[in-house]
Design brief:
heterodimer; A: about 325 residues; Rossmann fold; seven-stranded antiparallel beta sheet; five-stranded parallel beta sheet; B: about 425 residues; Rieske Iron-sulfur Protein; Naphthalene 1,2-dioxygenase Alpha Subunit, Chain A, domain 1; 2 domains; four-stranded antiparallel beta sheet; 18 strands; about 25% strand; 2Fe-2S_ferredoxin-type (chain A); transferase (chain A); FAD-bd_FR_type (chain A)
Chain lengths: ~325, ~425
C-alpha cells in the first residue's frame, strides 16, 4: 500500500515453470510467508545468480494464483543473456528461491474517470493485474498491448478472453504497430495512462504526452532499466583519474563491472531512477545508450553524464554513426 | 497487532483493542479540514488532511516518499498540491510527485499513498485499508446530521481508550442510571427489559420504558413542544450499531399512552444521538458525536442547549472510559466477565472480530501500536505548528471548533450539571 516499504526477504518454492510465449516463461512461486496478495502494479525482488555471483532482480507480479498465495511472474529471456533472466528460465519445479514481499512502486489509482493501459512486449507483466482490477471495479478503461510479433505476446489469449473489446492488440509484423500519438490522444482528459514497455516505446510516449500538453503526473510508468535502444554489447570503460580500465561484458552492467575492478561507487535503486550512480562522461568512442529515467531528454542529448547502473555504450556502427568502423565502444568517465 | 489470532478466543476479551482497516472512519468534522495541513493519526497511520482549492478533501500518507519527513510540516502549493518542508518534493492530491529538487525529471516511483476520502453527513471519512474495496456506499447512514428534517450539532472528543470501550458504553445504556444520574439517568433503565437483534453488519438494542416520570433532560425537551404537560411519559432508546464503530441512537419521550410504542410519536419529541468512533491507536480514539432533534427546528438556542448539555453528559462517560482503559492495562491477567446487559456489545464485538479475521492474511500488515504511538507524537508537534495558521471559522463551525478546544477546560458547566 505504501509507495515504498522496507524489503523483507523470505524463502519461496517454485511451483511451476512453463513457456507462455517465445522466450517467455511463466514462473509460479509460493512464498513461505505472505502478508497480503500482491496489489496491482507491484513487483518482487528475487535473489539470482549471475556469472556465479549472487545478485538481485525485480520482476512484476502478473497476478496471484487461484489459491491467493501463489505469485505468478512472466520472465523474458534477454538476448544472449547469461544473466538474471537465464537464471529464472533455468528454475525447476520444487526449487527454493529467496524473494521479498510484494513491493509497490507503480500503484494503481482508483476513482479516475478513465484509464488506458499500454504494454509493450514483456511490459505486459506489470499491467495484467491492473486490467483485472479495473474490470472488477467496472472502471472505464482501454488496454493496448503491442509487440513485434504475435508469437512474442505472453498472456494474449487470456487477455482477449478477459477484456474483449476493451483490449487492442498491436502487432508490428502484422502492420498494426502501436500509434503513439493516437494512444495519447485516446486518453480522455482527467484520465490516466499507465505504461510498461521497452525504453524506446516509453520515450516516444513521454514525448507525445509532453507534446500534447498533458499533465505529467497522469502518465504513470515503471521501468526496470532493462532495455535500451540497442542490444547490449561489450565495451571498455576507463577512469583515468583512478587509473582504472575494464571491459564491460554484454550481460554485466557498467556499475557492476566498475565495482568488480575496485571503483567505490555510490548507487541505490539500480534501475535508472534515483540518479545516485551518475558518472561524468569525459569522452566516448561509440554511442551512449541511455536507459535511465532520471535524466531529461535534453540531458540525454547533451551526453555529458550517464547513469551507470543501466546505461551502456555501443559501437559507432551499432549506433548508426556514418563511416563507423565497427570497433568496440570505449567510454572515458570520471566518478564522484 | 496487540493480539495474535487465536482460534476460539473470546471476542469480548478485555485486551481486545483491534480494529478493521477496511472501513470508513470519520476523521474530522468537515469544517476542520480546510486550506491548511491537518495531521491526524487514524488507525495507527499518520495521515495529513487538507482541502484542494476546488474544495475536495484529501488524505495523504503523512510521510514524504523521499526520507519520511512529515508532509504536514510542509505547505500547500498551487490549487491541490502539498510541498514537503524538508527538500521541496511536491505531491498532487493523488499522491503523485509533481516536482523534485535538482533534477529535470520526476522519479516515476515518487508517490505517497492517497487514502480514499468521502465527505458525508458533515464528516470527512477516510478508508485506511485496501483502496480497491473503498465503496462510498459503505459509509454509515447518519443523514440526521445534515437532513432538513433534523437540527443539531456536536463535537469531537479525544478519548484515551480503545474505540471499542465507547461502542460497549453506547450499546448498553443501563449505565446512564449510574454515570448520568443527574440528567438522563432513571431507575427504570436498569429495571426494564430490552430486545437485541442483529444481522451481518448491524446490531439493534430496543428498550421501552412506559408510563415513567421523565428524567430532567427529557422533561425539558418535551416542554419545548408541550409547555403545559406535566404527566408521565413513554420513553424509548433504540440503539443502532453499524460495524465497525458507528452507533445512532433513536431516543425520545412522548406523553404516556399516546401510542408511541405503536409508531405514533406525534405527542412526543425524538432525537438521534449520532456517535462514530475512530481508532487513533490501539488505545486511543476520536469520538465524534452529535445530537439531532426533530422538534423546534428553527430555534437555534435549543441546538446550543442540547450540544452543551450532551457535552456535559459525555464528559462523565469520558472519565469512566479512560479509567476503565487504565483498569484493563493495570490488570493484564484478568479478563472481562460479561453479563446479560452486555448482549448488544457482545454482538458488536463478534461482528467486528469477524471483519478483522477476514482481513488477516489479506490486509497488507497494518501498522502496529508502536508506530501508531509514534505517529501521534509526530502529529502533535506538526499539528501544534499548523494550528497557528488555522483559519478562524465562522458561525456554527467556529462554535464547534471552540467546543473541541474548550471541552476539557469546562467540562461540567453544561445545563445537565445543574439538573435542568
Amino acid at each position: 500500500m505504501a509507495a515504498t516499504s522496507a524489503k523483507k526477504w523470505r524463502r519461496a518454492r517454485v511451483l511451476d515453470v512453463c513457456e507462455v510465449a517465445e522466450h517467455v516463461r511463466q514462473v509460479v512461486l509460493e512464498p513461505e510467508h505472505l502478508e497480503a496478495p500482491a496489489a496491482p502494479g507491484s513487483h518482487i525482488d528475487i535473489g539470482v545468480y549471475v556469472n556465479g555471483r549472487a545478485d538481485v532482480r525485480s520482476y512484476s507480479v502478473v497476478g496471484m494464483g487461484a489459491y491467493g498465495t501463489e505469485i505468478v511472474l512472466g520472465v523474458q529471456l534477454a538476448r544472449q543473456s547469461r544473466g538474471g533472466s537465464a537464471y529464472m528460465h533455468a528454475l525447476r519445479r520444487g526449487q527454493e528461491v529467496s524473494i521479498t514481499q510484494p513491493l509497490q512502486n507503480f500503484p494503481l489509482n482508483y476513482g479516475k474517470p478513465a484509464y488506458v493501459l499500454a504494454a509493450g512486449g514483456i511490459g505486459i507483466t506489470a499491467l495484467v493485474a491492473m486490467g483485472r482490477a479495473l474490470k472488477a471495479r467496472g472502471a472505464d478503461y482501454q488496454f493496448v498491448y503491442g509487440a513485434r510479433s504475435r508469437g512474442l505476446m505472453a498472456f494474449a489469449d487470456e487477455l482477449v478472453a478477459e477484456h474483449g473489446d476493451r483490449l487492442e492488440l498491436r502487432v508490428d509484423d502484422e502492420g498494426t504497430g502501436l500509434d503513439v500519438a493516437g494512444l495519447v490522444a485516446g486518453v480522455p482528459d482527467g484520465g490516466e495512462l499507465y505504461v510498461c514497455g521497452p525504453t524506446p516505446m516509453l520515450d516516444a510516449i513521454k514525448a507525445a504526452w509532453a507534446a500534447a500538453g498533458r499533465r505529467p503526473a497522469d502518465l504513470r510508468f515503471e521501468t526496470f532499466g532493462s532495455s535500451g535502444r540497442f542490444a547490449p554489447e561489450a565495451f571498455t570503460v576507463r577512469i583515468p583519474r583512478l587509473g582504472l580500465e575494464t571491459v564491460v561484458p554484454h550481460d554485466v552492467s557498467m556499475l557492476e563491472a566498475l565495482e568488480a575492478c575496485g571503483a567505490d561507487l555510490m548507487f541505490d535503486c539500480r534501475r535508472g531512477e534515483c540518479g545516485l550512480c551518475q558518472v561524468k562522461v569525459v569522452d566516448v568512442e561509440g554511442v551512449i545508450d541511455h536507459r535511465d529515467v532520471f535524466l531529461s531528454d535534453a540531458q540525454h542529448q547533451a551526453g555529458d553524464r550517464l547513469q551507470c547502473c543501466v546505461s551502456r555504450v555501443v559501437s559507432a556502427r551499432t549506433g548508426g554513426l556514418a563511416g563507423a568502423d565497427g570497433q568496440p565502444a570505449v567510454v572515458t568517465i570520471d566518478v564522484p | 497487532m496487540s493480539q495474535p489470532a487465536r482460534p476460539g478466543a473470546a471476542p469480548a476479551h478485555a485486551a481486545f483493542r483491534s480494529f478493521p482497516s477496511n472501513a470508513w472512519y470519520a476523521a474530522a468534522w468537515d469544517h476542520e479540514v480546510g486550506r491548511n495541513l491537518l495531521p491526524k493519526t487514524i488507525a495507527n497511520r499518520p495521515i495529513v488532511f487538507y482541502r484542494t482549492a476546488g474544495g475536495r478533501a484529501v488524505a495523504l500518507a503523512d510521510a514524504c516518499w523521499h526520507r519520511l519527513a512529515p508532509l504536514s510540516m510542509g505547505k500547500l502549493r498551487g490549487d491541490d498540491e502539498v510541498m514537503c518542508g524538508y527538500h521541496g518534493i511536491c505531491y498532487d492530491a493523488d499522491g503523485r510527485a509533481t516536482f523534485m529538487p535538482a533534477q529535470e525529471t520526476i522519479n516515476p516511483s515518487a508517490t505517497v499513498h492517497s487514502y480514499p476520502v468521502v465527505e458525508r453527513h458533515r464528516y470527512v471519512w477516510v478508508w485506511p485499508g485496501d483502496p480497491a474495496l473503498a465503496d462510498p456506499d459503505l459509509v454509515p447512514d447518519l443523514h440526521m446530521n445534515d437532513h432538513p428534517d433534523w437540527a443539531g450539532d456536536g463535537k469531537t472528543i479525544h478519548v484515551n481508550c480503545s474505540y471499542q470501550l465507547i461502542v460497549d458504553n453506547l450499546m448498553d445504556l443501563t449505565h446512564e442510571q449510574f454515570v448520568h444520574g443527574s440528567s438522563i439517568g432513571h431507575d427504570a433503565l436498569s429495571e426494564s427489559d430490552f430486545e437485541v437483534t442483529h444481522d451481518a453488519h448491524t446490531v439493534t438494542v430496543t428498550k421501552w420504558m412506559l408510563g415513567i416520570d421523565p428524567p430532567p433532560f427529557w422533561k425539558r425537551n418535551l416542554q419545548d413542544r408541550f409547555p403545559d404537560y406535566e404527566g408521565p411519559v413513554d420513553r424509548w432508546q433504540i440503539i443502532h450499531f453499524t460495524a465497525p464503530s458507528t452507533v445512532a441512537i433513536d431516543v425520545g419521550v412522548a406523553k404516556a399512552g399516546t401510542g408511541a410504542p405503536d409508531g405514533d410519536r406525534s405527542q412526543g419529541v425524538t432525537g438521534t444521538v449520532i456517535n462514530t468512533m475512530t481508532p487513533e491507536t490501539d488505545r486511543t480514539c476520536f469520538y465524534l458525536w452529535a445530537f439531532a432533534r426533530d422538534w423546534c427546528l428553527d430555534k437555534q438556542v435549543i441546538t446550543t442547549r442540547l450540544r452543551e448539555g450532551v457535552s456535559g453528559v459525555f464528559f462523565e462517560d469520558e472519565v469512566m472510559l479512560e479509567a476503565q482503559q487504565r483498569g484493563i492495562e493495570a490488570n493484564p491477567d484478568y479478563d472481562f466477565y460479561n453479563l446479560n446487559i452486555d448482549a448488544g456489545s457482545m454482538w458488536t464485538r463478534r461482528i467486528v472480530q469477524r471483519m478483522i479475521d477476514a482481513e488477516r492474511g489479506s490486509d497488507s500488515e497494518p501498522p502496529d501500536e508502536a508506530s501508531g504511538d509514534a505517529a501521534v507524537a509526530m502529529g502533535a508537534v506538526t499539528g501544534a505548528a499548523n494550528a497557528a495558521v488555522h483559519e478562524e471559522g465562522t458561525g456554527m463551525a467556529a462554535e464547534v471548533a471552540g467546543g473541541i478546544a474548550g471541552h476539557r477546560q469546562q467540562p461540567t458547566v453544561g445545563l445537565m450539571g445543574r439538573g435542568l
